[in-house]
Design brief:
3-stranded antiparallel sheet, Rubrerythrin, domain 2, Pnp Oxidase, Chain A, about 230 residues, 2 domains, 7-stranded antiparallel sheet
Length: about 230
């Protein structure tokens, strides 16, 4: 059985936010879908290990921010690779609180949804939270980021707790060696460079400036190893 067939299913890239008392937390997900139109119902799958899961279970509330294709990897890294148990993800970003008091990330978002949980389903490593949409807004006409775009253009990887995570992802060999971040699995591809950090395509890993850091998790070059 070739489980890579699952990677052909189309996904988007979103930030799910929730609250617990006065505390806010959020994370990147790719598993959001509309399941009903009347009333408007959406669903999201969240790993039970994630802090956001605990917040949604407690409040029965969550919001969805649909990310644009020009979202910087550093921003994706904040919500995708850092934990709210250690950092305040909302400290320096643009967000607002919705009609339910739940945070809604506005930065890099093209649309937002606010939902009240009406049912949840235990499916093993994850819980699916079905939410009735109580508010929604379009912020921009930019293109939404798909999961394929995140992988192929942004060179992003799936976190271990993502439902689409695979233990090993094969990549094509290139003339210049690629280097992999040992912390978050981001792959530096010399052919693509790192435009968000001012690194032009065609820049080898060895030629990166000493102050360059992983655009996803922020570690320095010493935490990278050559891709095997």
């Amino acid at each position: 059985m070739n489980l890579k067939a699952l990677q052909k299913i189309s996904y988007g890239l979103y930030i799910i936010s929730s609250k617990k008392g006065d505390a806010f937390n959020g994370q990147i997900v790719n598993t959001v879908m509309q399941v009903c139109s009347e009333p408007p119902i959406i669903a999201v799958a969240i790993n039970k290990e994630n802090l956001t899961h605990d917040f949604i279970k407690h409040s029965n509330l969550y919001t969805v921010s649909v990310l644009s294709t020009d979202t910087p990897m550093k921003f994706i890294g904040l919500f995708g690779w850092k934990t709210g148990r250690e950092v305040d993800k909302y400290k320096d970003i643009d967000y607002k609180t919705g009609i339910t008091g739940t945070p809604i990330v506005l930065e890099n978002a093209i649309a937002t949804l606010e939902a009240e949980v009406i049912k949840n389903m235990d499916i093993g490593s994850h819980t699916i939270f079905f939410g009735k949409v109580v508010d929604a807004e379009i912020l921009s006409e930019k293109e939404p980021m798909t999961y394929a775009f995140y992988h192929m253009v942004k060179k992003g990887k799936a976190p271990r707790t993502a439902p689409t995570f695979f233990k090993k992802e094969e990549t094509e060999s290139k003339t210049m060696a690629k280097y992999v971040c040992k912390v978050c699995a981001y792959v530096y591809d010399p052919e693509k460079g790192d435009p968000d950090s001012g690194i032009k395509p065609g820049t080898s890993f060895e030629d990166l400036p000493d102050n360059w850091v992983c655009p996803v998790c922020g570690v320095d070059k010493s935490q990278f190893e050559k891709e095997k």
